[in-house]
Amino acid sequence: MMTAVAVVLLGSCTDKKECRIHGTVGIEQLNGKRIFLVPLYGPQTAEYVDSVEVKDGKFEFTTDTVMIAKLLMDYHYRMGVEQLLVVTEPGDLEVVIDSVSSGHGTPQNDSLQSWKELTQRHNRELAVVNRDARMLAAHGDTAEAARVSTRARTLHQTYKDETRRRAATMEGTLIGDFLKGLYPLTYQKKMPDGSIVTMNADTHEPVN
Fold first, then answer.
1. pLDDT tens digits for 39-91?
2. CA nearest neighbour of 40 among 179, 188, 168, 183
């Protein structure tokens, strides 16, 4: 009896180290097609890429490798299907693959989904403002077009700052590092005399 209990406990501990991805595919035509779990960084050869067949609109992956990865369909069937970034951290991750894909269920994936929704809202709003600026310029209203373009830059700066803030709150995690890498505060620039100068990534001016 004690041995059976020990085996159950051991199995429970092992399961907690795994990421279990439970997927739903919202496009019926993708039944029978393969979906791939591909590392975002590093080798993407057969040794590191996993794949399964979509059956009855469902699929599952299990892995004990913690990484940022992409879920994407076979390249013949990617048109109109949004790939999804996920973190394969221990736990159960529920994902939906569709024209707009989503994932939730573990801390980093919940944070990633929240940032993705922020990005989608930002992109929609920025697209409208940029469209208005182009229309104004096309009609010769250069002053108003310039004002709207300034608003577009302000919107994008606000988005970058929020992304950086989220990166800071998740420092030390894969998602924190991923977000931090999107909008670094500085970059290195080689000058004509061969010297390397640290530049502000927003103003493109040297950092004193």
1. 999 888 888 999 999 999 999 999 999 999 999 999 899 999 999 999 999 99
2. 179
Contact 74, 97 (CB under 8 A): no
Same domain, 71 and 132: no
Residues 146, 160 share a domain:
yes
Residue ranges making up the domain that contains 89: 17-103
pLDDT given for residue 148 in this prediction: 96
DSSP 81-116: ---EEEE--SEEEEEEESSS-EEESSHHHHHHHHHH
CA angle centred on 119, ends 114 and 122, rounded to 5°: 130
CATH (domain of 49)? 2.60.40.10
> Closest Cα partner for 55 from 25, 94, 98?
25
Mean pLDDT of 107-129: 97
Residue 4: per-residue pLDDT: 40
